[in-house]
Design brief:
- With 334 residues, the chain is mainly beta.
- The chain has 3 helices and 18 strands.
- Strand 7 (146-158) and strand 8 form a beta hairpin.
- Helix 1 (2-9) runs antiparallel to helix 2 (13-29).
Length: 334
């Protein structure tokens, strides 16, 4: 607390840098660590709703009208992501960490959204999650290859009601560690138990970073397969992302930009009791710009503004839409 408070009182840039270094050193030595991400987000699509009024297949076969709650609804979302970790044990080649994480969001519908969907309550869109985890970081025997294995157990609530629990196993390791380039591999498997079904998922993700003179370039590639015991729960997803963070702030603002693309493919999909001939395919495009105002931080937490837009094209109009989100929050500078 006092080192964060000292940041606001540092008389020179050198004093500020030294305080940051001291905080990082103490944080690395401490067994207990806490972090919080808070944000408020106005959005024109609070419920991932459709952009049109009609339920169609392939843009021409009309099945009827979509309900107001199935269409895009504007409003406001407040979100929090709280993480607490405790280092149980540590040696020269291994570390064991116990973690507790809670995430939740609270929503408010605009007056226009309330007119469009009078039977929908804003609380129906609220969600929360509590997760406990155990992570083992170690060096592979007879080598310097770092491995991280994690186990997590969590519970999910939607609309204020418990909707299921899950168990996740994951592992990460660097495939490349060079002076300017890094490549990470992550693999996971997850099992969810809901009141009406069970869902299994597995995936691989590659994350690459390359440091340039002008900034850092990042690239992400992932593939996920999901299988469930209920209808319309089996699908595959592939995603690609590209980002860039300039080396130096632009005046008082630290900037980062990213673009993304993803495809969700349902080989078998049922709608109104009948199977859709070609299943369901969603194509998603997204772009995001982050502005971090480092010069006006408070106790090491800097205001952050994120502008994000997404567009989804689908052969089933219920899942076709776009969203524009403007999020304001705070992030730690170190």
């Amino acid at each position: 607390f006092w080192l964060r408070r000292a940041l606001d009182l540092a008389p020179t840039d050198a004093d500020h840098a030294q305080t940051v270094a001291d905080f990082r050193d103490i944080s690395a030595r401490a067994r207990l660590h806490f972090s919080a991400d808070l944000s408020i987000t106005p959005t024109d699509n609070l419920n991932d709703g459709a952009s049109g009024k009609y339920l169609t297949i392939d843009d021409w076969f009309v099945l009827g009208m979509l309900s107001g709650s199935a269409q895009a609804l504007s409003g406001m979302r407040a979100s929090a992501d709280l993480k607490l970790s405790y280092r149980i044990a540590e040696s020269a080649r291994a570390r064991t960490t116990l973690g507790l994480r809670t995430m939740f969001n609270v929503n408010a519908l605009s007056a226009e959204a309330k007119r469009l969907a009078p039977d929908l309550r804003a609380t129906d869109l609220n969600s929360s999650k509590v997760e406990i985890s155990l992570t083992q970081d170690f060096l592979w025997p007879q080598s310097q290859q770092p491995i991280s294995l994690g186990f997590a157990l969590g519970e999910i609530w939607n609309g204020g009601a418990a909707s299921g629990n899950y168990l996740r196993l994951e592992g990460t390791t660097p495939l490349l560690r060079a002076e300017k380039t890094a490549l990470m591999l992550r693999a996971f498997t997850e099992r969810q138990w809901r009141d009406d079904s069970q869902i299994g998922a597995a995936g691989l993700a590659f994350d690459a970073r390359h440091r340039l003179t002008s900034g850092t370039l990042s690239l992400g590639l992932s593939a996920t397969t999901v299988a469930g015991s209920a209808i319309n729960q089996d699908y595959q997803r592939g995603a690609l992302s590209l980002g860039f963070t300039p080396s130096h702030p632009l005046g008082p603002v630290s900037l980062s930009v990213s673009v993304s693309a993803a495809v969700n493919r349902y080989d078998i999909y049922s709608l109104l009791g009948a199977q859709v001939t070609n299943g369901r395919t969603d194509h998603q495009l997204g772009a995001e710009v982050d502005f971090s105002f480092q010069d006006i931080s408070i106790m090491g937490y800097a205001p952050k503004l994120t502008i994000a837009t997404t567009q989804t094209r689908s052969n089933i109009s219920r899942f076709q839409g776009q969203a524009l989100n403007v999020s304001f929050g705070f992030e730690s500078q170190f």
